[in-house]
């Protein structure tokens, strides 16, 4: 999924980290990649150290030994090119559906960023070839299963390295599945014959799960703003009060995300005749239900969780993850930085608020549809209740998704299955956490779209004018979905609003009235 746009024309990969926005730009918007001179110089300097070790007598992991549980096997000099090639071929063992293009591109950029630190020992040509594939729009085919999130995202990254070698399969810039060798040849890219250490350096990273964390963080930030927009629409449509979102009340509990959410809802409700009617003496509502009154507490807690996970991502972007790694003083040392626990926990953590924000949204939708709780709205917002069922089954769809999101909130990172003959006896399962979070974000998008569709219809059924901002969102929905009337084929209408949520159109409609929303 993709929410919003990041405008970065060229991403310059140097010894410092790329930014989260740059990752999104390359992954989703095909921003071009260049290698900075300092990175190329660092690559060349560190490579000299690896080449010196390659002819030395003492064994060095990844240079003159086997891998994993086979690390005790000494590899003679004339077999070390075979060693690297065999490593990539054997580790490109993924299975299942293809992984999304944006995920593979993010993963390749992040591996390139680590190579550019000069800490992995690869030659400049390896990094240049990764950049060339990205710029040519050539995307290695990576499969759903194959990473345990420890020793790096081994199989996914191996499929990328296999393509750099001119083997395996890719999608070209037009999306056609092709043999990698032919695609590289047509793009004028020379396949790389991997030298000592290089195969290992291309697969020992958390780049797959990190790329998905960055993409998820970008999407969730927009979805939380959307959740506050739809909450405001529901508060208004259900004759709720905006007074609970006042800054002084929110300041009594100084959680930063909560304050931000309350500001969005208050801005959306500014100038509402409907909400103002809550203060009438004839209004029977004493205080609103939790799904209305506590909306910023939930979306705000999600924001604060996201802030923590973005901090984890920033730390990971500043890392040079490989094993062994070439230190600043020239040592080649084994380490455990490839373990995916920090990223895996963040990915699992985000799945919890995703499920909860969706759960609250579904509860608001259900309230809009229930004649006993909707304060004068027709049953199920139907045009002719009884003959028409209105949005009755829309809520069923939301409920099914929310139930699935609760299952997806169960953490993957608490599991571990030993591998590599017990050498790798504890793994993070971070890749699995990333894959389920992507599905969860898609579910949240659909639930919020359902609420927006129902709230827009409910606002039309009120006699008083809504706030200018909520009216703008309603009108944007009306550009793709008709208003109240006889029952229609509902699935295409839901999907049309899903696309409005996904591409940020509802936020854009609101911000034309409110200015930038947090």
UniProtKB/TrEMBL annotation:
Major localization listed first in the record, in broad terms: cytoplasm
Transmembrane stretches, start-end: none
CDD domains, per the entry: PAL-HAL
PROSITE patterns registered for this protein in UniProt: PAL_HISTIDASE (PS00488)
PANTHER family: HISTIDINE AMMONIA-LYASE
Family indicated by similarity: Belongs to the PAL/histidase family.
This protein's name: Histidine ammonia-lyase
Organism: Micropruina glycogenica
């Amino acid at each position: 999924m993709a929410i919003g746009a990041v405008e970065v024309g060229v991403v310059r990969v140097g010894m410092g980290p790329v930014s989260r926005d740059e990752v999104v730009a390359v992954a989703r918007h095909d921003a071009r990649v260049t290698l900075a001179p300092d990175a190329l110089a660092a690559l060349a300097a560190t490579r000299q150290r690896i080449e010196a070790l390659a002819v030395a007598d003492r064994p060095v992991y990844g240079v003159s030994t086997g891998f994993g549980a086979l690390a005790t096997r000494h590899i003679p000099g004339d077999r070390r090119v075979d060693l690297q090639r065999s490593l990539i071929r054997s580790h490109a063992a993924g299975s299942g559906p293809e992984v999304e293009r944006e995920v593979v591109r993010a993963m390749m950029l992040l591996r390139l960023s680590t190579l550019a630190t000069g800490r992995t020992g690869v030659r400049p040509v390896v990094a240049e070839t990764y950049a060339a594939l990205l710029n040519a729009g050539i995307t290695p085919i990576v499969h759903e299963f194959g990473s345990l999130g420890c020793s790096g995202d081994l199989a996914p990254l191996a499929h990328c390295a296999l393509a750099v070698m001119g083997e395996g399969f890719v999608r070209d810039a037009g999306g056609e599945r092709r043999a990698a060798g032919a695609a590289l040849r047509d793009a004028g890219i020379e396949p790389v014959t991997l030298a000592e250490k290089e195969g290992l350096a291309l697969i020992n990273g958390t780049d797959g799960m990190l790329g998905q964390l960055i993409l998820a963080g970008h999407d969730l930030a927009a979805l939380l703003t959307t959740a506050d927009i739809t909450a405001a629409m529901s508060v208004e449509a259900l004759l709720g009060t905006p007074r609970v979102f006042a800054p002084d009340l929110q300041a009594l509990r100084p959680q930063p995300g909560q304050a931000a959410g309350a500001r969005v809802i208050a801005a959306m409700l500014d100038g509402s005749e409907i909400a103002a009617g809550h203060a009438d003496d004839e209004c029977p509502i004493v205080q609103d239900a939790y799904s209305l009154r506590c909306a910023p507490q939930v979306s705000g807690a999600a924001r604060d969780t996201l802030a923590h996970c973005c901090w984890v991502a920033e730390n990971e972007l500043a890392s040079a993850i490989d094993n062994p790694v070439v230190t600043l003083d020239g040592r080649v040392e084994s380490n455990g930085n490839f373990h995916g626990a920090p990223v895996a926990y963040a990915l699992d953590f985000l799945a919890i608020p995703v499920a909860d924000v969706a759960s609250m949204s579904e509860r608001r939708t259900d309230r809009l549809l229930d004649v006993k709780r909707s304060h004068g709205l027709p049953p199920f917002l139907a045009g002719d209740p009884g003959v028409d069922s209105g949005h009755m089954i829309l809520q069923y769809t939301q409920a099914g998704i929310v139930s699935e999101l609760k299952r997806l909130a169960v953490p993957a990172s608490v599991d571990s299955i030993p591998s590599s003959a017990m050498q790798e006896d504890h793994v993070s399962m971070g890749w699995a956490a990333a894959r389920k979070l992507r599905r969860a974000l898609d579910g949240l998008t659909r639930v919020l779209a359902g609420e927006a569709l129902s709230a827009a219809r409910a606002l039309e059924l009120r006699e008083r004018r809504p706030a200018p901002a909520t009216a703008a969102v309603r009108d944007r929905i009306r550009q793709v979905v008709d208003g109240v009337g006889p029952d229609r084929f509902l699935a295409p209408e839901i999907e049309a609003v899903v696309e409005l949520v996904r591409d940020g159109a509802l936020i854009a409609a609101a911000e034309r009235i409110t200015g930038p929303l947090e």
